[in-house]
């Protein structure tokens, strides 16, 4: 639940999602769900020449199970808030 | 709040699906469920190659199991019409790969494995 809540706070920010098939997609975080499925808008594939497979796609839904990394903007990360939330989750979650 | 993004907004739209084995299938989304199983109408597979243009294989009405889906993209018909698929050259997408644990000389090792047939499709090495 912690990361679901955390990603909800990041809606509207630019993120880069790296998938398990090495594809990396940059876009604006539109929404997230309990499975950490991610919807991105105005996407741009990171190495577009190598991966032209999504040239006609503007918005996409990424299945949570296939995500390797979600790269976040540094100013989108509040370490203190994350620490508190983690402690709370470990205690009662 | 907990149903989140869902594919509701994409029903009856043309979508581009990337599957876990690296295939790209384009079609009209007719239905879906919580497991991301989808029903795809008028679908065709786009096969990318470094040697020739994109090949389109007609499939028809398909159910794709959610287990096997990586990405569901909303296809922009305008952008797609501007693409000359016959000129596109690209390596096929990589499969997602699975983790396996094996022992070597009594030591446990975790490694990511791919179906061997997928890697041997092209003559050039896949980076």
From TrEMBL, chain A:
Main location: nucleus
GO molecular function: RNA binding
Keywords, alphabetical: mRNA processing, mRNA splicing, Nucleus, Ribonucleoprotein, RNA-binding, Spliceosome
Pfam families, sorted: LSM
Residue ranges of the TM segments: none
SUPFAM superfamilies given in the database record: Sm-like ribonucleoproteins
Coiled-coil residues: none
Nucleus recorded as keyword: yes
Compartments, record wording: Nucleus
Biological process per Gene Ontology, one example term: mRNA splicing, via spliceosome
Role description: Component of LSM protein complexes, which are involved in RNA processing.
Name under which the protein is recorded: Sm-like protein LSM2
Species assigned in the record: Ensete ventricosum (Abyssinian banana)
From TrEMBL, chain B:
GO MF, one example: mRNA binding
Pfam family, one: LSM
SUPFAM superfamilies: Sm-like ribonucleoproteins
Keyword ATP-binding: no
Location of the protein in the cell: Nucleus
GO BP annotation list: mRNA splicing, via spliceosome
Classification via InterPro entries: Lsm8, LSM_dom_sf, PTHR15588, Sm, Sm_dom_euk/arc
Any one annotated GO CC term: U4/U6 x U5 tri-snRNP complex
Domain named Sm: residues: 2-78
Stated role: Plays role in pre-mRNA splicing as component of the U4/U6-U5 tri-snRNP complex that is involved in spliceosome assembly, and as component of the precatalytic spliceosome (spliceosome B complex). The heptameric LSM2-8 complex binds specifically to the 3'-terminal U-tract of U6 snRNA.
Name the UniProt record assigns to this protein: U6 snRNA-associated Sm-like protein LSm8
Taxon lineage: Eukaryota, Viridiplantae, Streptophyta, Embryophyta, Tracheophyta
């Amino acid at each position: 639940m912690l990361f679901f809540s955390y990603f909800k706070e990041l809606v509207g920010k630019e993120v880069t999602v790296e998938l398990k098939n090495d594809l990396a997609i940059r876009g604006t975080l539109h929404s997230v769900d309990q499975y950490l499925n991610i919807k991105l808008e105005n996407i741009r594939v990171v190495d577009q020449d190598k991966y032209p497979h999504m040239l006609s796609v503007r918005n996409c839904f990424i299945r949570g199970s296939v995500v390797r990394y979600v790269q976040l903007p540094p100013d989108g990360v509040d370490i203190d808030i994350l620490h508190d939330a983690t402690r709370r989750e470990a205690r009662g979650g | 709040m907990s149903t989140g993004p869902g594919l509701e907004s994409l029903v009856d739209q043309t979508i581009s699906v990337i599957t876990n084995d690296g295939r790209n299938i384009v079609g009209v989304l007719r239905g879906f469920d919580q497991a991301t199983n989808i029903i795809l109408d008028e679908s065709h597979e786009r096969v990318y190659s470094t040697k020739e243009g994109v090949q389109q294989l007609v499939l028809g009405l398909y159910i794709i199991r959610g287990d096997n889906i990586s990405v569901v993209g909303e296809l922009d018909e305008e952008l797609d019409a501007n693409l000359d698929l016959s000129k596109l050259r690209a390596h096929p997408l990589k499969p997602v790969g699975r983790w396996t644990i094996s022992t070597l000389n009594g030591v446990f090792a975790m490694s990511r494995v791919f179906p061997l047939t997928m890697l041997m499709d092209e003559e050039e090495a896949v980076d």
